[in-house]
Amino acid sequence: MMDSRIRDEAAQWFVRLQAADVSHEERQRFDAWRTERPEHQYEFDVLQGLWSATEWLPKARLQALCEAPAEQPGRRGVLRYAVAASVVAVALGLGLFSGLDHPKPYNAEFSTRLGEHRQVALPDGSVMDLNSRSVVAVHYENGRRAVELKQGEAMFSVEHDTRRPFVVAAGAGQVTVTGTRFDVRRDDDQTLVVVEAGTVKVQGRLPDKSVTLTAGLGTHIDTQGHVVAAYAVKPEELTAWRTGKLVFNNATLGEVAREVSRYREQPLRVSAAAVSNLRLTSVFKSNDTEALLKALPHILPVAVRTLPDGSQEIISR
């Protein structure tokens, strides 16, 4: 459970940063606080998402919410925000925002560092979970919720809204939904889409070529924009990164190396096709890939060597 003290600190910082007289020193102190712990960044992001959502509430309603009495005068600003944010969260859950005719545009970009996981609350109530080394740009406008996965991987829990499709562009394709839960992973040679709940439409470069996925199905799009037919997947394994796990179920070492590289400063390579095609079934922690490298020679006929540039390579033994 998130420490309530952190949530209070995030609210205080958020309210202070709305003021016009914020000093350079205060911003430096905020940056130091924000980067001190991942929970600090997470709580502040939640407030940002809720604050953006308040722009979609009728002005009179929002003013009424913010006039709630404060128990402690010294914290009136924080309490006003907390009251408004709490009601906004309820409104999001009830889908009230989808009834507004002219929501204001929303633009933002989010990213994660090596080994970092980050959850972002969007103005409509949708939530993004970003994997390590990911970059996502968000652009909401009337009639469309657009997201671009520029790099990495993200899990999307989309608030249902038939009037405003949620469209994720990634590589040579895009995913269109109105409300569902799915994962999109962008690699150099393909974009992988996996559905955990609901229905999504996956489209490549050709407008008349698309694939519809439901829960437990996946597909991928190659660099030319070709979408392959739907196939069965295990979403709980492919999205285990959200709980800090790397799950490999009869995966090739080539696939293992690509996944592990997401969590290392230097990429992990495989020396030859024969080695790349070896299969692995196991579970490891994403924040301890060294344990995986130490275990490999005990599981398969391979060894791991370090190259001059500091990267590592799996070779035949």
Mind sketching the topology for me?
Layout lengths: L3 H14 L6 H13 L1 H17 L4 H8 L9 H19 L11 E6 L6 E4 L5 E4 L4 E7 L2 E14 L8 E5 L2 E5 L3 E6 L3 E8 L1 E5 L6 E5 L2 E6 L8 E2 L2 H4 L6 E8 H9 L6 E3 L2 H4 L2 E7 L3 H11 L2 E5 L5 E5 L1
Parallel strand pairs: 5-6, 15-18
Antiparallel strand pairs: 1-4, 2-3, 3-5, 4-5, 5-8, 6-7, 7-10, 8-9, 9-12, 10-11, 12-13, 14-16, 17-18
Name the CATH architecture of the largest domain: Sandwich
Could you tell me the strand content as a percent range?
25-35%
| Oligomeric category | single chain
Sketch the topology as an H/E string, one letter per element: HHHHHEEEEEEEEEEEEEHEHEHEHEE
The overall pLDDT average reads 82
Largest sheet entry = 13 strands, mixed
Morphology call: globular
CATH class of the largest domain: Mainly Beta
| Total count of domains | 3
User: Which fold name corresponds to the CATH topology of the largest domain?
Assistant: Jelly Rolls
Please report the number of helical segments.
9
- Separation of the first and last Cα atoms: 46 Å
Please mark out the parts with pLDDT under 50 across 5 or more consecutive residues, or reply none: 65-80, 94-101
The amount of helix comes to 25-40%
Overall number of strands: 18
